[in-house]
Amino acid sequence: MDTTSARPLDGRTALVTGAASGIGQACAEAFAAAGARVYVVDLAADPAHRLAERIGGVAHVADLADPEAVEALPADADIVVNNAGLQYVAPVHEFPLERFLQIQRVMVEAPFRILRRTLPHMYARGWGRIVNISSVHGLRASPFKSAYVTAKHALEGLSKTVALEGAPHGVTSNCINPGYVRTPLVEQQITAQARAHRIPESEVIERIMLDRTAVKRLIDPTEVAHLALYLCLPHSSYLTGASLPLDGAWTAH
Known about the structure:
43% of the residues are buried. The radius of gyration is 18 Å and the shape is globular. Helix 1 (22-33) packs across helix 9 and helix 4 packs parallel to helix 5 (146-166). It has a seven-stranded parallel β-sheet with strand order 3-2-1-4-5-6-7, with helices on both faces. The longest helix is centred in the middle third of the chain and has 29 residues, at 97-125. 42% of the residues lie in helices and 15% in strands. It is α/β, with parallel strands linked by helices.
C-alpha cells in the first residue's frame, strides 16, 4: 500500500453492502476516491449499477436475506464494510416474526457469511480491514426496535470476535456507532415512529431522534464514510476490536 499518495488504497478491493444509497454510497465513493476497487452490493439494481459505473466499481445485485445470494458474492475483498440494514418499528408483542427474522438474516447472518468467505483471502495476504456499520443501538436500546437492537448487538459481538482472531493475520475489525444519519432508512422511520409514540410526524426528529444527543442535528453520511476510511489507513493498524460512537454524545449520558 502506498502510504504517501492521495490514493492510499491503490491495489485494494473493498466490498460495501447496502452501497446504493446513504452511508453505503458515501463509503463506496470515499473508498473509490482513495484508490480502492469497490464491489457495490445492493438489492436496488439500477442505483447500484449507476454508482458502480460512476466510481469505476463493480455492481453486485443481491438480496442479503437470501443465503445463496450472499454466498455468490466475491470472496477476494481486502476490505469489507458491512453496512446493509433495514428497520421496523413495533412493540415486541406486536412485532411480526418474519420481519424479525429477516432483519437478523440481513444484519447478522449476511455479515457472518461474508466474513467467513473473505477472511481466508485477507489472512493469505496478511492484511485486511473490516468496518461494521453498527449503530448507537449496538450500545444502547430504544423501545419498539427489538429486531434492530438485537441485530446491532450481535454485530458488535461478531466484530470483536473477528478482531481477536484476525489480529495475528494483520486484519482489524471495528464497529462505527452512529446516531441518526440523514439516510432513506431514517427518513422512512418518521411515520412509524410517530405512530408508535403517538406524536405528530413533525415532532419525531426533535423529540425522538435528537432527544438524547448533545449535537442537535442529523449526521451526514459522509461523516460516517470518512471515519470508515480512517479505519482502513496505515496509521490505524493498532485500532481493532473497538466500537466508535459517532453519536453527538448520546452515549455520554
